[in-house]
Amino acid sequence: MSTRAGFVALIGEPNAGKSTLLNRMVGAKVSIVTHKVQTTRARIRGVAMEGDSQIVFVDTPGLFQPRRRLDRAMVAAAWGGASDADVIVLLIEAHRGVTEGVERILEGLADVGQGRRVALAINKIDRVEAPRLLALVQKMNERFTFAETFMISAERGHGCDDLRRWLAAEVPEGPWLYPEDQIADLPMRMIAAEMTREKLTLRLHQELPYQMTVETENWEERKDGSARIDQVIYVMRDGHKGIVLGHKGETIKAVSKASREELTEFLGRRVHLFLQVKVRPGWLEEKERYSEMGLEFRDGDG
Ligand SMILES: Nc1nc2c(ncn2[C@@H]2O[C@H](COP(=O)(O)OP(=O)(O)OP(=O)(O)O)[C@@H](O)[C@H]2O)c(=O)[nH]1
Ligand SMILES: [Mg+2]
Q1: Where in the chain are the domains?
Q2: Predicted structure pTM score
Q3: Is 26 touching ligand 1 by the criterion CB < 6 Å?
Q4: How confident is the model at residue 300 (pLDDT cuts 50, 70, 90)?
Q5: How far apart are CA 29 and CA 286, in angstroms?
Q6: Cβ(158) to ligand 1 under 6 A?
Q7: What is the Å distance from ligand 1's center to 12 Cα?
Q8: Architecture of the domain delimited by 188-293
Q9: Residue 1 has what pLDDT?
Q10: pLDDT tens string 41-84
Q11: From ligand 2's centre to the CA of 225, what distance in Å?
């Protein structure tokens, strides 16, 4: 019997539920999720098996109109993910319908979708009534030739098995690309940094999550089987540092605890996590920060 394997890019506006879907497909939390937009910053791969098919899901940053250098690098990574994939799944939110952002993505797809199968996944169906959903399916299919339309709830799992089965038949014949038991291919140090960034994003308000980044500086395996992980949180201003630390250090303590707990569960062993906050006004313009995030830094792109 022949095997199949291929890449499936999940694209859509920020907050559409791409990372939630990736985690659901893989069956583990590989990509971080928050209720805020622009959570995912780089391409994140998660591997799912379905019968004889290996589906490599590529979670991408949301597509929006970029302003800053970081935004542009994120959007470029997302379109790059789509153009490298065998199949593209466009996620839209059932309750928001065809937004301006969705219109712009459809324009982009007219180009990037050429010669590629593109499926539509209407997500968050738990938030709308059936008649509205059917009208949306029709409207979207008038705008673009989707190979198939799925109505799903990534959070609750509705429709996700159907989508996975369909994708398993869509990826090309060929040998598997990863060992059967591998679920992600992001370096552990990056997954660990992402977990801390998620906890920070959940606790910090307004613009602050967009003005910080987290890096794992050091990872030490200890003789007793535990891991010591040192991370740096880069912020842009002194005032931000104070907010991240919180009154009497309460915020950073809570973040550290939540991140450590999740890392402990993920790694299946004890974790000692040390967080440090550094003020770095120009981090958004530093090449090294981008490579740590898994993004491309293009000169003259400022
Ligand atoms: N009600 C409902 N909420 C959902 C569903 N799927 C995802 N969400 C929520 O939508 C929010 C955004 O989810 P993410 O998975 O982070 O979205 P994303 O598309 O990866 O967002 P970016 O990384 O910012 O581009 C989170 O609060 C999720 O819990 C769903 O099926 N139903
Ligand atoms: Mg995401």
Answers
A1: 4-170, 188-293
A2: 0.97
A3: no
A4: low
A5: 29
A6: no
A7: 11
A8: 2-Layer Sandwich (3.30)
A9: 63
A10: 999 999 999 999 999 999 999 999 999 999 999 999 999 999 99
A11: 32
